[in-house]
Design goal:
The structure is a homodimer of 219-residue chains.
Chain A lengths: L5 E3 L5 E3 H19 L4 E2 L1 H8 L3 H9 L11 E2 H12 L5 E6 L3 H12 L4 E8 L15 E3 L3 H8 L3 E4 L3 H13 L4 E4 L13 E4 L2 H13 L2
Parallel strand pairs in A: 5-6, 5-8, 6-7, 8-9, 9-10
Antiparallel strand pairs in A: 1-2, 3-4
Helix pairs in contact in A: 1-4, 2-3
Chain lengths: 219, 219
């Protein structure tokens, strides 16, 4: 199995990446139900919302211990609580932003205002125009030449890469060497190809716009 | 076949969504090769870069007529030209932005400065604080109550949704009725579930952060 295709659960089971990728969607649907006062939900109702099968839902939940009695339906509050425990933790993940151009600023705003469970510790850029400026969230942009020292001293969990491919390729060894394990990657350089033991979530905004363009023109 | 799983090519063939989704990645790799002076490339070299098989590459290209002689390798310039023709067109796609909060502003900046083939015509919000303000790209934010009239008169190709799920659900019938066919969707409401004949690219930033968090904590 490819190194990034499975992760350990707290109790040592392997959970496959597709299951992990479905967790946020379960969370969103179940949060909606909870907010609307729904008390119980069956695996087939969940399956309908998720666009999957009831047996897939039960299989997914069994990866994490099952989340309660399936015969009489799941308790929405229990489900919500259990899935939230999986997705978030009491301690926020500390993040550093690399690249404070237009996209980087946007993403820093999103991360510091709308994303649960993350704390933006610091931001870095190489441009003299950016260094010393303050982001909307209050973080002051540092010279990327400080990145290695900063990471060694402050142990960020996650780096957010809002830089071009070549810059990402150049900064990757610094981050990996300093022990950064997680990457929210908006660049076109996928670190997981060259480095073992890192976790990368790629977001390719440009790719989705290109496919959309093709599809709209060929409707 | 599900309605959004296949699209017509200009010559009437069906091209599956996974193939369409791979096109931007081909484009990026081939543009890189072209920029680096590479003249010819074989399907197996392409396959290695793409993380797939040579036969998959040939099959993908055959959906669009083959792109030249595979026995002696593909000409990089021809490939680049043909794939660019598929992904972009002489006429930009006209886009409207719905929601000019932090994310919407970020995305509008990306769309108007970094995305090839799109033109941001107009932006809409419901907040009195936003209406009348100018985005960095020069577009002035309009009241979302003008959206329907605007779309009927100006026929945008694509709507970019940077609003919460409930707002997206409320605005969807207005856009669909006005003939908007393409959606770059950052909301959690997937229009393609309720409307036929629309093309939706979902970007779930929050979901990717949640999966990343789970994976980093369970490494």
């Amino acid at each position: 199995m490819k190194k990034d295709m499975a992760e350990q659960t707290p109790n040592g089971n392997k959970v496959s990446l597709p299951v992990i990728k479905r967790l946020p969607k379960y969370y969103r649907y179940i949060l909606d139900m909870y907010s609307n006062g729904v008390v119980k939900v069956s695996s087939s109702e969940l399956a309908r919302m998720m666009g999957t099968t009831a047996s897939q839902v039960r299989q997914d939940f069994n990866c994490f211990g099952g989340f309660g009695q399936q015969g009489i339906g799941y308790h929405v509050d229990v489900l919500l609580d259990e899935i939230a425990k999986l997705l978030f933790s009491a301690n926020s993940l500390n993040a550093v932003l690399i690249g404070t151009g237009r996209l980087g600023r946007a993403i820093s705003g999103y991360l510091s205002s709308e994303a649960r469970g993350y704390h933006l510790m610091a931001a870095f850029d190489k441009s003299p125009d950016e260094i010393g400026k303050k982001l909307q969230c209050g973080v002051v942009v540092q010279n990327v030449s400080n990145l290695s020292d900063f990471c060694v001293q402050n142990h960020p969990d996650v780096a957010v890469l809002c830089i071009p491919r070549s810059a990402a390729q150049a900064v990757a060894p610094v981050l990996v060497e300093a022990g950064v394990k997680g990457y929210w990657n908006f660049s076109h350089y996928d670190l997981s190809v060259d480095y073992e033991g890192v976790t990368v979530e790629n977001v390719h905004l440009g790719d989705s716009l290109m496919s959309l363009g093709y599809r709209v023109r060929n409707l």
